[in-house]
Amino acid sequence: MSRRKAIISMTNSNDQTTINGLDLHRSHHVNLKLSLNQFVSILIANKYSEFAIACLVIIYSCIAIIRIAFDTELLSVSTELNITELIILSFFALEASMKIFVLKRLYFKSWINSCDIIIIGVCFIVIIFDLSASSVRSNAVFKLAKIFRIFRLLLMLRKASEMKLYKDNNKIKTYSVVSVCSPSDNVLAILGKVINFEWVSLNEPLREELVWCYDIIKSRKLYEVNIISDAVENNDIVKMGLEESEIVEQNESFSINATNLPLQSLDSSHVSLLSKSTDWDFDIFKLETEIVTSSLEVVTSFFLSTFNLFSILDIKQATFNSFIHEISSGYIKENPYHNSTHAADVVQAFYYFLTTCDARKICSLTEIDTFVCILSAAIHDFQHPGFNNLFLINSNDLLAIRYNDKSVLENHHLAASFNIAHEDGNKIFENWTKEMYKKARIKIISLVLATDFSRHFGDIGKFQSKLSDGIVEDEEGRILCMEMLMHTCDVSNPSRPWDICKIWADKVMTEFFIQGDKERELSLPISHLCDRYTVNIPKSQIGFMDLFIEPTFNALLLVLPKTEKNLETLRNNKKMWSESK
């Protein structure tokens, strides 16, 4: 459904909210400079006016019902009742006049409003005739009054419907003024008011859109993304994503030299190779084959050294080397994809974004933030079993039971890594204050949990909503950037140069097929993209790029303009996959 953009000027100051200059909360603070039209608008929308009309509706309803049921018996007090009715009708007429004054011709676009005017007018005429009737023609007027009594009933029903609107409004207000409320609750209260404005009710398409906005915010689905794809070949990719979801400005130069290296086993050729680590075409596989130790240990310690973080953050380099060795050893070598080489690749991707794409500067990341980014990338798949969350949940794995089917692997990666960090010889945070450690831990948890693919669409929605202008101006924005960078690095393989992209694709599909074979063996539902007998690898890669990777980089492009290069490489790789179908 297409949504038109309606620009409604909103200003919130303390407990007073105005929309297009109309005070929604307090009409007794009316600005003297307001026009007469605005003053009348405020008066109509005021809650006390609504309450007064509601009370008059109740009184009028009682009188109308009593007069219809006991008309003959009440002849002795008919004059008093007529006068009472006349007074109430006068208020109704005043209300209608004020709405006509504000809405003008728009008011008469609703046939119900036109009927209101007619009914009020007829009721006035009947009562005036009743009051002025002589004894000679009293019988005729009496009969006429009985005939037109039905108009009183119609007016009563019409006003009763307005009273229901008042009650609905009151419910919204009650919802939004509880002792603990969020900004979204205040937005709901404002929208509830706007929806029930007379001029909105006369514009049905606009009212439907506002109701849709109200329902979306109330259901807490503001950041959910709807996927519309007619391509059959992409269906498995879409299902995979939906299936998962169901269950500080710095300007340092980056000097690279041998004295910064944490591992003395590196020779000049290795240093030369690492000097290219700020490039997106950096080949982690080449580094892995040329060094004695694991690439994860080398790149993690090396990148932290280039930022001089061991010294700045008072982290003993020997302790960190021991810690990162334990982390690297905890990755399962037999996994085709989720192994220490993948972790090293993600670390290098993060380093590239921090340096070449200026993420540190643009996102105003501190030294602790930078450390959090590199460390989170290093541990993000620690002890990954080679099977995804859905498999662990469907197979009743102990990890799924331990973490209640919620971000199972991500929670395990974090818990197991922090356990290592608290072991003797691996206490990398031992010189930090409690406050430093607490803040860093919160961010590390946040970043690693952001690699849970079930969060993909929601996180992109939040990122685009918060940072649509490309400006990172507060802590919330910084954390969103760090999370988006973490997620992007984790799934960035399709945007690498073609030869590297192809290697990673073969590895991940091999691991998927191993899971599919295991699911078939255990009589479990075979996960999407995991059936080696039905999946077309080139088509699946193109679908994955179209639906997930390209939108991710497009979102990141809002903040980091230099990632346009990654998008170009991604599009070139799609062409290569198309040619290999």
Automatic annotation (TrEMBL):
It holds the Pfam family Ion_trans. AMP binds at H338, N339, S340, T341, H342, D381, D490, Q541. One of its GO terms (molecular function) is monoatomic ion channel activity. Binds 2 divalent metal cations per subunit. Site 1 may preferentially bind zinc ions, while site 2 has a preference for magnesium and/or manganese ions. It is a multi-pass membrane protein. Residues 249-581 form the PDEase domain. It is found in: Membrane. GO terms for cellular component: membrane. The active site is at H338 (proton donor). GO terms for biological process: signal transduction. Zn(2+) 2 binds at D381. The keyword Glycosyltransferase does not apply. The chain crosses the membrane at residues 51-70, 82-103, 115-134. It is an enzyme of class 3 (hydrolase). It comes from the Eukaryota. Zn(2+) 1 binds at H342, H380, D381, D490. PANTHER family: CYCLIC NUCLEOTIDE PHOSPHODIESTERASE. Belongs to the cyclic nucleotide phosphodiesterase family. This is Phosphodiesterase. The lineage of its organism: Eukaryota, Sar, Alveolata, Ciliophora, Postciliodesmatophora.
